[in-house]
Amino acid sequence: MSAEEPPQGARPGGGRRAAPLSRPPAAYLSKARQVAQELLSRIADSKLEPGETFATEALLLQQFDVSRPTLREGIRILESQGVLEQRPGPGGGLVLRRPSLDLLAHSLSVYLRFNDVPFVTVLQAREVIEPALAAEAAEEGTDDDFREMEESIERMKVLGEDQTVFINENREFHSIVARASGNKLLETFWGTISLLAHGEHHGMRYTMGNRQHVIAAHQRILDACRQRNARAAAKAMAEHVGELEHLVRDRYQHLLGQRMSVRDHRGVR
Asked: Nearest CA to 245 among 187, 189, 197?
């Protein structure tokens, strides 16, 4: 299979012209996957932002020596990866998307499920990642970040009995800490792991006493961050996330060896 010379000015997203698709791949790829790889390469080389139009199907058919069904299958591969979406109607076409954490969490959950990784191991991963994020938040966080942490704590103090609202606010606090760290890679790791490691998906519930412990722990983390004390922030976070594992071992021992469930890419289990 080869790529034809694109018409003058017809390079989607301003990207480079496709290299021939007939070069021998390291491992066999279907024509659709070869198309997907070439499109992904063009997207990566372009300067387009999510929400901008990359190309139209008609334009790509002019550039790739493949059938329409093969092209569409290649596009569907990138749609499944959260990279592209079809926008119908005038002015539509293939629009760039930013892959979501839900998609990443889905892929990781499939890997963990079929490699027999238990729930408690994912909790332990949080115990490694989150103290590092808290330490960096203490060093790199801004006054605005710390104000957002404080506002989250204040909201938690007045929440009612609704478990879902409390859990969402708890996750919001940890999200603020992750963002405040300025470490995008660790923030992504945390965001993915946190979607898999929430105990409520496994039947765990937070009592009023548990909630008060969470609020107090968040306050200690915030105090350490405002003092720019990275070691204290990491220690406070380590103790905090470690409490969840202790809770599992004390009250939900059946979860210790339970394998991870597969998370739907829409966030549904």
From this structure: 197
Q: Does the pLDDT at position 111 exceed 80?
A: yes
Q: Which amino acid is at 59?
A: L
Given this model, what pLDDT does residue 16 score? 46
Provide CATH 1.10.10.10 ranges for the chain: 12-96
- Name the token pair of 60: 């790509």
Asked if 178 contacts 138 with a C-beta cutoff of 8 angstroms, the reply is: no
Rounded to 10 degrees, the C-alpha dihedral 125/131/135/137 comes to: 80
- Tens of pLDDT, residues 142-186: 999 999 999 999 999 998 788 888 888 999 999 999 999 999 999
The residues of the chain that CATH labels 1.20.120.530 are: 102-255
Smallest Cα–Cα separation from 51: which of 87, 81, 79? 87
Q: What fold does the segment set 102-255 form as a domain? A: Four Helix Bundle (Hemerythrin (Met), subunit A) (1.20.120)
Q: Which of these CATH numbers, 3.10.129.10, 1.10.10.10, 3.40.50.2000, 3.40.50.150, describes 12-96?
A: 1.10.10.10
Q: What is the CA radius of gyration of the chain?
A: 23
- List the 93-96 sheet strands across, edge first: 53-55, 93-96, 84-87
Q: Which residues contact 263 (CB under 8 A, 6 or more apart)?
A: 102, 105, 106, 109, 195, 196, 269
pLDDT 10s digits, 46-55: 989 999 999 9
Of residues 57, 45, 66, the one with CA closest to residue 85: 57
The DSSP line for 27-46 is S---HHHHHHHHHHHHHHHS
